[in-house]
Amino acid sequence: MLEANPSVNRYCERPSWPAECGPRPALDFWVLREHQPVWLASEELASTLPIQDPCQQQGIVVQSVTANDLDSHRVWIQNWLSLLPYLSATSSLNLDHLGKQVVEFFTRESSFDDAERHFARDDGVLVRTAVIAQLHAGRLFSGDLLTRPWDLDTRVVRISSEVRRASQ
After folding, report:
1. Which of these, 6, 1, 2, 23, lies nearest to 133 by C-alpha position?
2. Beta carbons of 31 and 11 less than 8 angstroms apart
3. How far apart are CA 150 and CA 75, in angstroms?
4. What is the three-class DSSP state of 156?
5. For residue range 116-158, what is the model confidence (pLDDT) as tens digits?
6. pLDDT tens digits for range 66-83
7. Is the distance from CB of 45 to CB of 26 less than 8 angstroms?
């Protein structure tokens, strides 16, 4: 789920390939992850890629993604598939102010439900969306999203500014 990863600055499905690197392989994605370009390919495809010397000298990185990689992240992927519609449905709204308040609220681990109760004067869906947006931006973290299906009891905590700076 490239869309949900805060370290991914940009991505492109079925990307182009540098001409000097020979014939274009059928890569699955190009990702700008923490400002470094990476081409992603399925495990079978990565083993057949004709990466020539000019590409290696340019630091082109082709990373393979295995079926086991995907399976080990199945819960996280499923959770983000259910969370991303909140972001797309509210993309035209400016939730910056609420987002800042939500980040401040999660100084200690709390649930989505706790946040909705705390911000009871705001629409619950908007509060939920603000939490999801801050998770997406990497300002909040939820270990629960990695291990169990998302619900209103999912625990969330603010990421310290030191950790955020170190990851950028």
Report:
1. 6
2. yes
3. 9
4. strand
5. 999 999 999 999 999 999 998 899 999 999 999 999 999 999 9
6. 778 778 889 998 999 899
7. yes
AA letter at 107:
T
Tokens of 156: 């969330």
- pLDDT of 161 > 80? The answer is no
* Radius of gyration for the alpha carbons in the chain, expressed in angstroms and rounded: 19
Tokens at 36, concatenated: 């470094």
Contact 58, 67 (CB under 8 A): no
C-alpha distance across the termini of the chain, in Å: 19
pTM over 0.85: no
User: Which segment of 2-16, 26-40, 79-93, 130-144 scores lowest on mean pLDDT?
Assistant: 2-16
Return all residues near 58 (Cβ < 8 A) that are at least 6 apart. Answer: 18
In the sheet where 8-13 sits, what is the strand order?
Answer: 8-13, 29-33, 36-42, 62-65
DSSP letter string over 12-62? EES----GGG-SPP--SEEEEETTEEEEEEEHHHHTT----HHHHHTT--E
158 SS3 class? strand
DSSP string, 108-145: S-EEHHHHHHHTTTS-HHHHHHHHHHHHHHTSEE-THH
